[in-house]
Amino acid sequence: MNPMNKAIDLSRVGLRHGGPFGAVVTFGTEIIGEGFHIMPSQRDPTAHAAVMAIREASRYRKTSNLSGCVIHLSCEPCPLCVAAIYYAGIHEVHYAATRKDAINIGFGLNSKSREGLLTIPPDNLEFVQTCEPERTEARAILALSKPPDPKTDPKTETGPVV
Known about the structure:
five-stranded mixed beta sheet
């Protein structure tokens, strides 16, 4: 299966755990890490799809250095995920939906003061947005999800889902 299609499939799984986000780490043509968003269900503010995939890939390779790997995301990464990608040594990021797609349905950091965090990727990261039909499919999955309300959902006590 195409890594981006796998990331989008994982975003469907993420729907049941608090957020429509999926991620796959590849080394060459091999998928070595997969993850989906489980932050609310695990009450772990770092349990984003990209972080989960990086953790699995690091265990698989028995190192935290994932240079030479590529990460494929159903949605453009948030600042936490960009930091994890950077520190893992991954230099290429492929994504389907944009952060604005996620913000438009209520996910993510949407205040102007925080938006700047999302626009400053480290210089050595290459971001590649996929073309249709992956973006359309990823956006449709985002639209299926309504972000949990931190005021009424006890699983979101850590704040907004990103």
